[in-house]
Amino acid sequence: MAVIDVFLLPGEHFVGDARHRIRTLLGSCVSITLWHPLARFGAMSHFLLTEDGKPGAGRLNGRYCEGALELMLGELEQAGIDPAQCQAKIFGGGMMFPGIERSDNGGIGRRNGETAERLLQMHQIPVVSESLFGIGHRHIIFNVGTGDVWVRQGPPGAFGGKALKERL
Prior knowledge:
Radius of gyration: 15 Å
Strand order of the largest sheet: 1-3-8-9-10
Order of helices and strands: EEEEEHEHEEEE
Distance between the termini: 24 Å
CATH architecture: 2-Layer Sandwich
Number of helices: 2
Shape: globular
Helix content: 10-25%
Largest sheet: 5 strands, mixed
């Protein structure tokens, strides 16, 4: 079976089967992966902000945490997957400008990660692993066939680097 590579840009998500490998590059943005181990089916998001801030916007938007999660959950359900039987992993929320960005809970990356954790808990989807916060960016590769997610974290402004650091 040939692997189909998918690269997510900010505001995008993807839902697919075991043939897919989903990649992205995160700074303060966050990715949520959802994986159903028996069906070997999964989803991944790349969202930028916690919420839209426009009351009554009405349409789900993948640039925001809640919209991205709702879009993935809906597509999983359409594919016959019960999201409550999925395992979640969360990545990103890095501080990209440590010299000028707040290091307390006021940073955008921290708010993104904490919002993802809270929403997954609200949907009763267990978080089995996470790589959140810290300084710098992350390269993420999600193998939908195995549920493995590989992470490489690098310093701010450096997008080259070493081999993938850990499997989560």
